[in-house]
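Why do we care about 3D structure at all? Because function follows from shape, and shape follows, mostly, from sequence. That is the central idea of this module. The next example makes it concrete: a single protein chain, its amino acid sequence, and then its structure expressed as tokens.
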Amino acid sequence: MQDKLKFDDADDISIEIIDDEETTEEQAKARDMARQAAEVKDYHQTLEVVCEALKSEAEELKTENATLRDQLLRKQAEFENYRRRTEKERSEIFKRGQKEVLIEMLSVLDNFERAMLSVAQNPADEDALKQGFELIYKQFKDILTKLGVEPLDVIGKTFDPHLHEAVTIEQTSEQEANTVIAEFQKGYKLGEQLLRPAQVKVAASNE
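And the structure:
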């Protein structure tokens, strides 16, 4: 009888131990669920903070973009105004320069007309005709010099394709090869810029 009681007691003890284990597992699950819930909550809170930060940054970028766009439009408008003003000034300068040149050329035309009238009135006066043409020629050269136009000095110079245009070549032993020995049409430059190349004859070696 005692043995049976002991067995029953052992069963009771075993049952109680099983109950304790089940309780512990449930508590562990509960703790895991609570921890997961906390982690999910923290994750959502973090997402909310990140979203708010991104929204704030987006608003700042939007404002900055609007400011930059406004500045760009202003710069474009300023540049367009500057371009138009510069073109207008350049056009006015060109017209003033053109007017001054034409006025100078008209004075040459006046002298031509006077010379022609003098020849018509005194056809036998060759000296007057010569003086008239010399005066006109000098006046015209003075106008070109005033405008910065200068003739090229080519005779005796080495042929330069950037300044000279070889019209013909002459074989000779009197000049070094590739030397300009004659000029058919004068060349001119404006400052350092070539206006017209000189048409020349170039020496070539007999050999």
